[in-house]
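Following up on my earlier thread - several people asked me to post the actual chain instead of describing it. Fair enough. Here it is, all 109 residues.
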Amino acid sequence: MIVKKTIHLEEDGSEGYVECIFDSSNILMSTYFPLNETLYISFNRGGVYSYGGVGQEKYDQFELSDSQGKFFIKEIKGGDHPFKNEYKLFESEITAAKDILNEWKENHK
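Reply from S.P.:
Thanks for posting it. Predicted structure:
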């Protein structure tokens, strides 16, 4: 479930990229770049992987899925999407995202 969604626009007003924080047991955040169809998944322990060839329709399905984790495993990780281990989030980045998640949970009891 989406906890926070931020759409970052280019100077011309077009969509540059989308960042989401999720209430998920495995996926903490995602960043999607529609122009090059690349999805970055940040996992709860901080690992970040990129997945190529993720079209807008598939990304929308991922974002709106009842379970991002299940959709990711079945349709993205298990699909025909080249992936790469990119980097690890700083502990402060993980904490900041989890703080947003915890605040959201408090407000949605």
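The longest strand covers residues 2-9. That should answer part of your original question.
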